[in-house]
Amino acid sequence: MDGARPKPSTTGRxxxxxxxxxxxxxxxxxxxxxxxxxxxxxxxxxxxxxxxxIAFLEEVIQALGDAPVGLRLAGxxxxxxxxxxxxxxxxxxxxxxxxxMLGGYDIIVAPERTTAALRWFGVRRAQLVYTQHGAGDRGxxxxxxLKAFDLVFAAGPKQRDRMxxxxxxxxxxxxxxxxxxxxxxxxxxxxxxxxFAQDRPIVVYNPHFDAKLGSWPAWGPAILAAFAAQDRxxxxxxxxxxxxxxxxxxxxxxxxxxxxxxxxxLDLGGVAAIDMTYTRMAxxxxxxxxxxxxxxxxxxxxxxxxxxxxxxxxxxxxxRHWTFGPVVEALGDIVADVDAAxxxxxAFLPAQEEGFRDTFDLTGESSSVRAARAIERxxxxxxxxx
Length: 386
Known about the structure:
By secondary structure, the chain is of the alpha/beta class. The chain folds into two domains: about 10-180 and about 360-380, Rossmann fold (3-Layer(aba) Sandwich), CATH 3.40.50; about 200-360, CDP-glycerol glycerophosphotransferase, C-terminal domain (Rossmann fold, 3-Layer(aba) Sandwich), CATH 3.40.50. The protein has 15 helices and 13 strands. A seven-stranded parallel sheet has the order 3-2-1-4-5-6-7, with helices on both faces. Strand 11 (about 285), helix 12 (about 290-295) and strand 12 form a beta-alpha-beta unit. Helix 1 packs across helix 15 (about 365-380) and helix 7 packs across helix 15 (about 365-380). The longest helix is centred in the C-terminal third of the chain and has 16 residues, at about 365-380. It is globular, with a radius of gyration of 21 Å. It starts with 11 loop residues before the first strand and ends with a helix.
């Protein structure tokens, strides 16, 4: 997997670009592998601004069965040196510094929207593909930068219809491909770790990083304290990686007291927090607006949601997932609320079934192959004679 490896009769160059932390790679790396296998005449490179991401990608590619892809670390090194611990190098400066190199590709595939800025930095020839990095309901991802992309992926009809109806993406530039991350998880088959000495039902608490939307600032420490004071449940605290940027919990004042609590496991950004290990092993999902709830619902189970901002959420498509379980409107006895969510799960099962079906189109070929074929079609149009 040498980024400089030659390919005979190359008919195109495709870059899969990663300028954030490792969690975003799982949404497209399997499509890169599938494309390289489908089209050995196409140069497929995975480019990242973080050496940690390059190492992680190499492991994942091996787990997927290897493929003729290149791995390339983007510079400059001095700009990487300005990166805070656990974070990613500044995205816009890195894009500006690498615009000339990236502009040499026919297609640039990215899991996040900041890559649209390449158009500002003079990249005109290369076509841009946005894969998404989640399939949630939050309104933030549905925004004008989508118009900069030549092709946008959707996991299913929900995402596609919302983007098209908002006028952000023409229907012909939107490809419904399913959810390639599921293919990666199935290939990795992470073994559930033994986290707790006592076997109890497991709750995964997964707050979002955005303080304007997430439950952590107002309610998070109190929730951890409540679980530390009971003995009926084990709790995995696995927030979005950007909430604490992968810090050591001992260095976070609001978390240090819970580090040695036998019924609480803290993970602020390890591999198990991004490869669905925790959402697969948990019995109950506790969260706010993270798209990970849909990954959890690959197997339908009880959910409980936290409205710490007292938003009027009913009927708002950005909160559709809050119809999949009870919503806590005022923090009281959170353990009793979990009990109630488990006991009343049957009432929410139809909404979970419908919501999952609208979110993920998993029919036909694997999601990774469908994504690769969509990129291949874009490449073929680019190189069509005349």
